[in-house]
Amino acid sequence: MSQNKLFQMRRRGFLKATTASGVLSGLTGGFAFNPMMEAIADELPKVDLRTNTGTWLPTTCQGCTSWCAKQIYVMDGRAIKVRGNPHSKIHNTASCPRQHLGLQMVYDPDRIKTPLLRTNPKKGRNEDPKFKPISWDQAMDLLAEKILALRAKNESHKYALLRGRYSHVNDLLYKQMTGMIGSPNNISHSSICAEAHKMGPYYMDGNWGYNQYDVKNTKYILSFGADPIASNRQVSFYSSAWGDTLDQAKVVVVDPRLSATAAKAHKWIPIETGQDSALALAIAHVALVKGLWHKPFVGDFKDGKNRFMAGKAVESTQFEEIHSYGLVDWWNLALKDYTPEWGESITGIPAADIVEMATDMGKAAPAVQVWTARGAVMQTRGTYTSMACHALNGIFGGIDSKGGLFPYNKVPLNKSFPDSKPYMDAVAKKGKKAEKIDQRGRLAMPALKKGKSGGGVVTDNVANAINAADPYNIEVMLAYFNNFVFAGTETKRWEDALSKVDFIAHVTTNISEFSMFSDLLLPASHHMFEKWGVLTASGNGHATASIQKPNIKRMHDTRQDETEVPYMLAKKLAEKGFDAPWRYINEQILDPETGKPAKDAEEFAEICVKYVTAPLWNEDASKYGDKLSGWDEFVEKGIWNSSPYPYQKRWGKFKTKTGKFEFYSKSLEKAFTAHADKHQVTPDEALTACNYTNLGKVAFVPNYQAPERDGDANEFPLYFVDQKARLNHEGRSANSPWYYEFKDLDPGDDNNADVAKINPVDAHKLGLKDGDPIRIVSTVGAIECTAKLWEGVRPGHVAKCFGQGHWAYGRVASKEFGKTARGGNNNDIIPNRYDRLSGSTAFYGHIRIRIEKA
Ligand SMILES: Nc1nc2c(c(=O)[nH]1)N[C@H]1C(S)=C(S)[C@@H](COP(=O)(O)OP(=O)(O)OC[C@H]3O[C@@H](n4cnc5c(=O)[nH]c(N)nc54)[C@H](O)[C@@H]3O)O[C@H]1N2
Ligand SMILES: Nc1nc2c(c(=O)[nH]1)N[C@H]1C(S)=C(S)[C@@H](COP(=O)(O)OP(=O)(O)OC[C@H]3O[C@@H](n4cnc5c(=O)[nH]c(N)nc54)[C@H](O)[C@@H]3O)O[C@H]1N2
Ligand code: SF4
Ligand SMILES: [Mo]
CA nearest 626: which of 2, 82, 200, 88? Predict the structure, then answer.
């Protein structure tokens, strides 16, 4: 039987009555049958009409936050292959395994093909939305009406814009439009992403951002949870360089789970979850006692005699720092007590091993780099873990050093669109002044992004705020490229919250769990193949700006989320008498080449990218990197590269309060004291309100605080360890068959299964064997999956990939679309907790569980 016949038969065999939504026709399972490959083939012209010649066209992958510059091979209007953009000085043609899944996503037969309107007014987990197709004009009309109704009653603050993944043309829809409509509520996903990671770097060396790691020149890598050949940032580059790195450097990975990187490392340290800071602090202690710190960066005792002795305070005037500040204060306040024996008592890692690590790092200094991942820092104590780990980069001088780590190079972009304030009327000005819906900046939620109380978003708390109608209720929501009902913790909170919102419009490629609580679905053009955008990335000493552009025949009646949608909405609002956004668009966002406004939505999308990137090609960017002759060259290459990062660039001029690398963070002290002052309490009262246990000045140095644990240890005797699957495009690839067919790319995982990896020691106690169906129960929920006995997880811990458990993300991702999940969503069992200093959601460390046979 031919392949096609077989597929047709299976398709018929699997056809059922229509599904919950009535939109996706009812293929269940997706385990044996794969409609996707057929759909891709269907999209190409019939075989004898194909030209068999194509072109490599540039774009950017957003499968993860590496944001690699890509080329796609397009033949007859269809994309058929993906590779790295050879012009990239970060990764060249190198790539990661998940790049290919983009093809299955853009040609996913389950994509939304037209706007859809909910006809069932009742919202809930078991309510079928009963979506029916409508036109774009009707859709925009309805959304505009809802927004205008809020403005008419002077309650424009009850509008909210939710942003998930994005490109650098987002400012118009995200910030400027929201402002002109009159709401303070532009909510990004950043604090369910990795904000706690930035706390160490920002409050110690002034970089609110991620670092790039000089892996080609390093001699020692210590990773706290980071798995750079599978996850993290610059996976394509690190994967291509890692073999050489392993030859020339010692690599030590600290992770309760044997990650892909740990499996190749010289040493794997399966730490108890939540205890990373104790290890980092004990290493720092040894480095000082043994005189291993990097003196050209940190300085030395004036007479060269080391006085750091365990438990003994040091006179600060005896030490002269060079590029750092507060080393002796830190020692006296906390570090002097964090001996290797103390470290062993908390982490179980032998003191001798801790001493060995410090000694090796001292020898390799300054070609030392200490990485942190979400796993170590997106915890209730995350800010302090981030600081403790980053402090090691200071002690061993890796900061901005050859073989160390440094911030992303500057890419001159107009990321901010022109200020829309002059277009705000009285309604908008009043609305914009309301408290933000996520309660950021309240006493118990400082969210100190860039030194400001309430400077950062508290994404996951939006659900709590809506459920409590505190500070008010949201009535109209526009959300794009996000799925917080799946990606946020304690998912039930999001289901309840969205059920309370009167009108939600979701701009999405696929119906997702978030869509199931929405009223209007607006089909999005796929970001990698059908959309104008621009992204920046950094690695290998360079930064890049690379474009996304519509390279294939647009599938379906879709629109680009960040450009066409706001353009059409502004036009509709103007037709109905509110013309501020429309005037703004036509007066402020002009083609940098002609000075003219766009003539239609599609042209506007391109103009937005031209506007943002003009400093790279319309001006002379050679001060920062490549010199381009103009827009055409940029579009043809698809990428601009920066010059290499100059080593020691920031030495002597860190953007901290003292201008130094702050072991005692004057910057955090200032920011947190201002937060306490704002609430008219003492800093200690504020720290206590935020659930931190070390008060006084200790709060401003890296310090150890026992992890919070959720639940009773007898009832829930195991810890849960979440991880990213290697083929996760964040939450977006779950409807791609390859995601399941190659699941064993994750060490310990099995193809076509959702497994919880349990150490055989624990499994035997529980009487479990491979393949047993199990239920994982936490204090907030339960999920079902399959037991997998595996030595690659620390006893007492259970590791499971995030990504499966979709009950509404297409026919492959769900057992029965709209009803039953395939596998379990980890977020159903993760209790909603925060690292309050950063406003980040805790996804790790606090999750106690038990396992039952299902
Ligand atoms: N494959 C893949 N890569 C991705 C993405 C993706 O979806 N898929 N998404 C991208 C995005 S959005 C982001 S923000 C980055 C995030 O990249 P990272 O910041 O590197 O974070 P994760 O990979 O989420 O971190 C989870 C890791 O921490 C480990 N871990 C869990 N608990 C602990 C603990 O208590 N201590 C220690 N030391 N480790 C622990 C887990 O085993 C896992 O290896 O990744 C990007 N890269
Ligand atoms: N347990 C656990 N939870 C996590 C993580 C984890 O590692 N473990 N990772 C966290 C991290 S780092 C992040 S960044 C967040 C991500 O969480 P979100 O920001 O919510 O993003 P996604 O889950 O990727 O969902 C994106 C949604 O956008 C839609 N979509 C897909 N492609 C497109 C497109 O091209 N255009 C538009 N407009 N829409 C599209 C689909 O509906 C998809 O469900 O999840 C966080 N949640
Ligand atoms: S590393 Fe991430 S951004 Fe780069 S190709 Fe892979 S999935 Fe895409
Ligand atoms: Mo993220």
Answer: 88
Distance CA 754, CA 763 (A): 17
Pocket of ligand 3 (CB under 6 A): 61, 63-64, 66-68, 95-96, 98-99, 235-236
Q: Is the CB of 189 under 6 A from ligand 2?
A: yes
DSSP secondary structure string, 727-743?
T--TTS-TT-HHHHHTG
Q: Which one of 482, 507, 521, 530 would you pick to mutate in the ligand 2 pocket, going by the greatest count of ligand atoms within 8 A of its CB?
A: 482
Cα 36 from chain centre: 27
Instruction: Indicate which ligand has the atom closest to the C-alpha of 510.
Output: 2
Residue with tokens 């008010």: 472
pLDDT digits (tens, 9 = 90+) for 354-391: 999 999 999 999 999 999 999 999 999 999 999 999 99
In order of 136, 664, 747, the CA distances from 291 in angstroms are: 68, 19, 39
pLDDT at 403: 98
Report how far residue 305's alpha carbon sits from residue 284's, in angstroms, rounded to the nearest whole number. Answer: 18
Proximal ligand: closest to the CA of 71: 3
**pLDDT score, position 781:** 98
CB 687 within 8 A of CB 699: yes
Q: Quick check: CB of 377 below 6 Å from ligand 1?
A: no
Q: What tens digit of pLDDT does each residue of 283-293 get?
A: 999 999 999 99
| Alpha helices (H) in 185-227, listed in sequence order | 190-193, 199-205
Closest-CA residue, ligand 2 atom 22, reads 731
Which of 193, 481, 535 most suits a substitution to test ligand 2, by most atoms within 8 Å of the C-beta?
481
Is residue 508 within 6 Å of ligand 2 at its C-beta?
A: yes
Express each pLDDT in 315-333 by its tens digit.
Answer: 999 999 999 999 999 999 9
Q: How far is residue 52's CA from residue 796's CA, in Å, rounded to a whole number?
A: 56
374 lines ligand 1 (CB under 6 A): yes
pLDDT of residue 32 exceeding 50: no
3-state helix vs strand vs coil in the chain, percent to 5: 35, 20, 45
Confidence of residue 52 (pLDDT cuts 50, 70, 90): confident
How confident is residue 46, by pLDDT bands cut at 50, 70 and 90? low
Nearest protein CA to atom 1 of ligand 3, as residue: 235
CA distance 657 to 496: 43
Nearest protein CA to atom 11 of ligand 2, as residue: 193
What number is the average pLDDT over the span 454-458? 98
Per-residue model confidence as pLDDT tens digits over 175-223? 999 999 999 999 999 999 999 999 999 999 999 999 999 999 999 999 9
Output the CA 722–ligand 3 centroid distance in Å.
20
What does the pLDDT read at residue 42?
A: 66
| φ/ψ (deg, to 5) at 677 | -55, -45
Percent of the chain clearing pLDDT 70 (strictly above): 94
Residue 730 near ligand 1, beta carbon < 6 Å: yes
User: Ligand 1 atom closest to Cα of 259?
Assistant: 44
Which of 163, 229, 232 to mutate to test ligand 1, by most ligand atoms within 8 A of the CB atom?
Answer: 232
Only one residue has tokens 């699957």, namely 725
Q: Which two tokens stand for residue 125?
A: 């987990």
Band (pLDDT 50/70/90 cuts) for residue 553 is confident
What single string gives the DSSP state of each residue in 548-603?
Answer: E---SPPPSS-B-TTTHHHHHHHHHHHHTT--HHHHHHHHHS--TTT----SSHHH
| pTM of the predicted structure, to 2 decimals | 0.95
Ligand 1 near 381 CB (within 6 A): no
Query: For the segment 711-742, what is each residue's pLDDT rounded down to a tens digit?
Result: 999 999 999 999 999 999 999 999 999 999 99
Residue nearest to atom 39 of ligand 1 (CA): 225
DSSP states of 79-120 as a string?
Answer: EEEEEE-TT-TTTTT---GGGGHHHHHHT-TTB--S-EEE--
